[in-house]
Amino acid sequence: MGLWVIAEAAGEGFRPSTFELLSQARAMGEEATAVLVGDDAANKAQLDGLAAKILSVSGDNLSPYAADPWVDALSQLIGEAKPDLVLFGEGQRTRDLLPRIAARLGVQAITAGMGLKKEGGYVVHRPAQGGKAYMDLALEGGQALVAFRPNSFATDAPPVAATAYEEKSVAAAADRAPVVERTVDAAKKIDITEAAVVICGGRGMKGEENLVLLEELADLLGGAWGVTRALVDASWKGADHSIQVGKSGKTVSPGLYFACGISGATHHIMGMDTSKVVVAINTDPNAIMFEYADYGITGDALQVLPEIINEVKALKS
After folding, report:
1. Among the four 167, 271, 280, 297, which has the fewest Cβ within 10 Å?
2. Confidence of residue 1 (pLDDT cuts 50, 70, 90)
3. Is the dihedral of CA 112, 117, 123, 129 positive or negative?
């Protein structure tokens, strides 16, 4: 039954990972079905031409998002249609849904996907051993649910000739953990996990007042800024867990990653090892971070960052 993509709404559109997954499906010659649940179907016209089919799912308790009803609805749909592969973009909602659906249906579950190809069957590329190695998993028979890191695929695959639409109503379970309140961090311009450019700072930033340098460079480059666990644990103002990069924080895969005053502890590396281009700035020429960097600058981040900011401003003007 082919390949499904669970499309996830964000604001008045969809997460970039939705477009990436649909593009990769088209690049592989797959007739993908985009699955939109509840209110996420409101902007389905944005996916016209990007999926061979759009399946809009409605039912009790599906809007706004809540884990229990969504797990029931998606388990029912996937169990009935039996698609070979169901793709998710990694994120908090996927962490809610994917393991529960996989357990309920007794199907394979794979996370941290970075690549997907078809060689007879589907092959998923993902990291292993904390990013020290990589593996290709050949999915030979049976269904599989796979979550892919943002920025894993390009979005330039040619569109499909036509998109078919289908609507389906399901009986969803009652929500055992109702949402009492929803808040949105208006100050966060770009989700760090989706950003194409990430500027991250560590102990080498020396004080919370210097984090403005990370934010300024991120704004200039159209990206997001983050911090290491050490700064979160130290309770620096602005260094909250939502922008922590590392094993116990967020995993990022930007096209460009700046590591500013970061030594390169394994805990941090596991959160950014799939970044495409890494620039490291550190006063210690033997810092482990340089081993993972494409470009290295030996120097004080507080002196180097203002110079980079000035150069970027000059280029943009």
Report:
1. 167
2. low
3. negative
Which of 60-69, 204-213, 249-258 bottoms out in mean pLDDT, i.e. has the lowest? 60-69
Q: Find the radius of gyration of the CA atoms of the chain.
A: 21
The owner of tokens 């169990």 is: 79
How far apart are the C-alpha atoms of 116 and 123, rounded to whole Å?
Answer: 6
d(CA 80, CA 78): 5
Q: pLDDT band for 141, please (50, 70, 90 cuts).
A: confident
What proportions of the chain, in percent to the nearest 5, are helix, strand and coil? 30, 30, 40
Q: pTM of the full predicted structure?
A: 0.88
Reduced to 3 states, what is the DSSP secondary structure of residue 70?
Answer: helix
221 exposure class (CB count in 10 Å sphere: 0-12, 13-18, 19+) = buried
Instruction: Looking at 149-228, list the stretches that DSSP marks H as alpha helix, in order from N- to C-terminal side.
Output: 211-220
- Say how far apart CA 171 and CA 306 lie, in whole Å: 57
Question: Which domains does the chain show, CATH number per domain?
Answer: 3-170 (3.40.50.620), 197-316 (3.40.50.1220)
The CA-to-CA distance between both ends of the chain, in Å, stands at 52
Q: 156-192: per-residue pLDDT in tens? A: 999 999 999 999 999 877 778 777 887 766 556 789 9
**Joined tokens for residue 22:** 């649909």
